Amino acid sequence: MFAQYACQAATAQAAAGGAAALGEWFAGAHGPDVLDRGSFVDVAGAHNVVWMAYWVDPDAYDRWQRSEPARTAWEQLPTHGPLAHWREVCVIPAERTESLHTHRRELCATSGLSQHETVELAETRVHDYWGAARDRIPASAIDGLEPSIGAFAPQPARDAPGPGGRVSVTVPGEVALIRTAQDWSESTLYRETYLTEVKPVKDRGVDYLADTPQSGCIAARNIAEETADGSLMQRACTVAWFASLSHLMDWCREDRTHLEIYESFFRMIGGGTGPLDIAFWHEVSVLPSGAVTAEYINCHARTGFLPLAG
Fold this sequence. Notes:
The protein is an alpha+beta fold. Helices cover 25% and strands 27% of the residues. The two termini are 27 Å apart.
């Protein structure tokens, strides 16, 4: 299970305050195996603080979200006012996901599911070519992973519901989820080059996706990762939803914004004087119909899957 629970507000301080209340829910019985936190400003200029939680056992998540205070607290969140909340939860079949890491957890305590000791980080020879991510997903051997709705495409956000109320969105099958991350906390050789020459290019690419639905990207979040109390960490991640794996791969293979990210990364590597000391990783999943729950409370119309609510 991967769940994002977030507070959205007009200011960073208000969003952090709301997120702190959400964070208390995870401390009880059946809480997540891995819990990360981060913040971002979305395409509408709203501040969001999001908890990114993983449960290895979906039954444990089910027990948690049915328990107090998680269930009652979520149901009682106000549908109007200065704060908004959203959650996007997915159960990920093991055969429909893949992950790639530059560093093992013993060398770098990165965020994400790779933190958990039960997750095997096997080395793979399936990389360094376009389409490798698809080939690392076991289900791709027998399944085209094409959208369940052939003509499905993100719609303009202007047609989405406005703030106020509680909206649940039916998410089409075969949407693709990616979380990709960078950790420079232990870096001495590549830190300056990464922060000045690579990260800004990466951030521009994610911002482009967030504001360009014709790319097939439904939502993209440039997240600065934080400690549980909100202190900024030396790592970041992107969480993005695409209409399909094909849309994600087309952006990677063909779009100028992603090619520029690749170019800046390999320029950094080529100019380095030693082993790479910044950790990079990603998780990519293709979710079947019914695997994603998306609910928005008092959120603005461009939040997450809300542009598809019509």
